[in-house]
Amino acid sequence: MEFASFADRAAAIEDVPSDTETVELVADLFVGAGEDLDTVARFIQGRVFPAHSATKLDVGPALCHAALAKAAEPNVTPADIEDRLAAVGEVGTVAEGLTLGGQRGLGAFGGGSDGGLTVAGVDAALRGLAAADGPGSTDTKLDTLFGLFNRADPTEARFLARLVVGTMRIGVGKGTVRDATAEAFGVPVDAVERAIQVSNDVGLVTETARQAGEAGLEDVRLAVGRPIEAMLAQAGTAVDALEEWDRVAVETKFDGARIQVHHDGERTRLFSRNLEDVTDPLPEVVRSVEESLDVPAILDGEVVAVDEAGSPRPFQDVLRRLRRKHDVAAAREAVPVEFYAFDCLHAAGEDLLDAPLTERHARLSELLGDGDGEGAEGGDGEGAEGGVSELRIVDSAEEIASLEEAALSAGHEGLMVKNPESAYTPGDRGRNWLKRKPDAETLDLVVTGAEWGEGRRANYFGTFLLSVRDGEGFRTIGKVATGITDEELERLHERLRPYVRSESGTELELEPAVVFEVGYEEIQRSPTYSSGYALRFPRFVGVRSDKAPDDADSLERVDRLAE
Asked: Residues of 339-358 as b/e, b for ≥16 C-beta within 10 angstroms?
């Protein structure tokens, strides 16, 4: 497929007002994609690689701006690109408004070819860009992007720039791709959704739907080494749980980092909630798993930082371990961890997603040699202690309260209450898992703006605008400036600076990229913010580096908390 054709279709999709029309246009795009179907299914969501892949383009705004400036008419500088971006607020529109291609004929890309861009060619170029590493890699990436932009017409440039920064801004999410795949190839929506859940690869699923139909989709299975999205929980109460289910499964809610374990029978890999490979920073967890498992398995669990007495340490300490790429031994000594497994998704060639929770947990206990479910220790003292998280089945609010008190007394975050008969639904934030915390709630909110500080903080962002998820967009709910030390403020400033979209006076608009955990005293209705709510006495708790903006708390959750 010519990239110009893809870009024209994307522009048409961006212009339609309704979800129904969007699905129809995406379905038509899929039907006409030919041998590029799998790539088109990713591109239309702003993805170059499957969702399960740890490979990233690793292209920051500065590099993208430099490539656009280089491909533009003479005398355009990266600073000019940034000025235009501040004016229009979106890099695709900036790229479309430039006069590109002034360097044609200089052999800047593809062996000197001046031919038009194709979907396959763009995909290959961006994959090569992602693979560039070591000395000179920045120049290689710049040359690759320059070559692409240099051959792009205005509409192509608009969507190429968006693809490079990872957002298409045309209202196409997983749900749209699911429905469009079903419509394009005449297969049930449920079959498509399940295949996407277990493969985490829309390209694979669309191609399978076209080639093999419903039967082929049903044959899509979990694969050890290919991470999937984690099942998620909503906030809830013991009363909620007991009203919905006859019995309630209760387990500790750990204040740690979600980890998905993939063991192929010999080798173990660990993936974070964001599907990043975190095997190397956690060697003791790897060793513990490999000493306990003798069959292929996929497990879900939590890594918790502990002190010398074995008591839980703050969540931020776990993040220190996950971020450490060098001198892992020193980090391991400074921040010991324990791993608690609480679910089993696959064992010995059998997918268990559709099995009831109680059955999956029993299988988990068998795999890790902890038949009584009371919590096992892994390894020989050199590994990560922890084991299987205890699962208790209760039928009264009093029992839940007692278990919660015990969890809090042990230094943990609270309780999880679950439907004992529930399946494991990847990526779903349904009502089958409820997280019960103490009354002092927190929200995970996306930073979408900032204000410059004052006094000694005048050189840093001092106040941060917070937003909740609402569909595929975000709505503001308040600002936070308290609870941040001077050292933290400096780190936050450096972390957020690359995401500045525009600046007006003391206020800045930021690309939704970073998630804050924010405490508060009360949620009040307020016309000041677009969510319709405001946080009373918000305070900064920490950065949720394990969460992407799509994992932040939703307006729906705020509605429930406000009630």
From this structure: bbbbbbbbbeeeebbebbbb
Please report how many Cα atoms fall inside a 13 Å half-sphere around the Cα of residue 17, on the Cβ side. Answer: 0
What residues does 444 pair with on adjacent strands? 517
Q: How much is the average pLDDT of 279-306?
A: 95
Residues 161 and 281 in one domain: no
Residue carrying structure tokens 């920045």: 138
3-state secondary structure 412-444: CCEEEEECCCCCCCCCCCCCCEEEECCCCCEEE
CA atoms within 13 A on the CB side of 424: 25
Domain of residue 449: give its range.
442-562
Could you give the CA distance from residue 48 to residue 128 in angstroms, rounded to a whole number? Answer: 11
Per the model's pLDDT, the better-predicted residue between 123 and 333 turns out to be: 123
Evaluate whether 120 touches 59 at the Cβ level (below 8 Å): no
The contacts of residue 408 (CB under 8 Å, 6+ apart) are 414, 438
Burial of 213 (0-12, 13-18, 19+ CB in 10 A): middle
Q: Which of 70, 141, 253, 547 is catalytic?
A: 253
DSSP letters for 441-476: -EEEEEEEEEEE--GGGTTSEEEEEEEEEETTEEEE
**Is residue 508 assigned to a domain?**
yes
Q: Are residues 16 and 158 in the same domain?
A: yes
Q: Nearest to residue 337, comparing CAs of 322, 356, 323, 352?
A: 322
- Domain closes at, from 165, 182, 204: 165
The C-alpha R_g of the chain, in whole angstroms, comes to: 25
Pairwise pLDDT comparison (84 vs 486), residue with the higher score: 84
Rounded mean pLDDT of the chain?
90
Per-residue pLDDT averaged across 530-551, rounded? Answer: 90
Distance CA 298, CA 262 (A): 5
Strands 337-347 and 350-351, by their bridges, are antiparallel
Sign of CA dihedral 468, 474, 478, 479: positive
415/403 Cα distance (integer angstroms): 8
SS3 content of the chain, % helix, strand, coil (to 5): 40, 20, 35
Q: What angle do CA 84, 86, 87 make, to 5 degrees?
A: 65
CATH code assigned at 319: 3.30.470.30
Same domain, 515 and 393: no
The pLDDT tens digits of the residues spanning 1-52 come to 999 999 999 999 999 988 999 999 999 999 999 999 999 999 999 999 999 9
Active site residue 253: yes
